[in-house]
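Form 7-S
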Amino acid sequence: MRIFASFFECANRIIMKIPLKEIADIRFGFYGKSAPSGKYNYIQAKYFDNSGIIVNTMDSFIDLEDKDRDHILLDGDILFVSKGFRYFSWCYRSHVGPAVASAIFFVIRPNQTTIIPEYLNTFFNIPKNQEFFKQFGAGSSIPSIRKSELESILIPVPEISDQQKIVNLTNLYLKDIALSNAILKSKIDLYQSVISNILI
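Output:
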């Protein structure tokens, strides 16, 4: 309960809103041809659900020429889907292994002295904000967000300590979802095993 009390304390404080371009660098992902093997994970939208949670095995790879090495992701980079019918983001951490974002993503490199990457990632994945992003591409056959539009989005930037409280709350939520999904899978597997033994 303490973490929820801390969350509500920071929610009641006045929070400054800053355009994304002032607290992060934004670049386009890399357009290339993936392969079954390679030096870098080639990260694609198909690996994630609508909340930016990895649900599929990363099985696409890519190699880079020296001139393209600046596309290698750095720890804390945020990948934000720039086109399509679902918007979400994901925070890259180096334990995933060397990786490159595909062209469907914007790569957002936050100033980590000002904003915690996971906090920014949480902001992008709030359902209300995902619906807001959809307005940018409304009416297009393939909706997309322009870089200038993303740069102008106002980001609430509380104190680092308050950002960390929000990150902690998000982590608890994600762990709870993962546990619930594991329990559900176990129940499904048990049911299918039992019913198969009865009917076969």
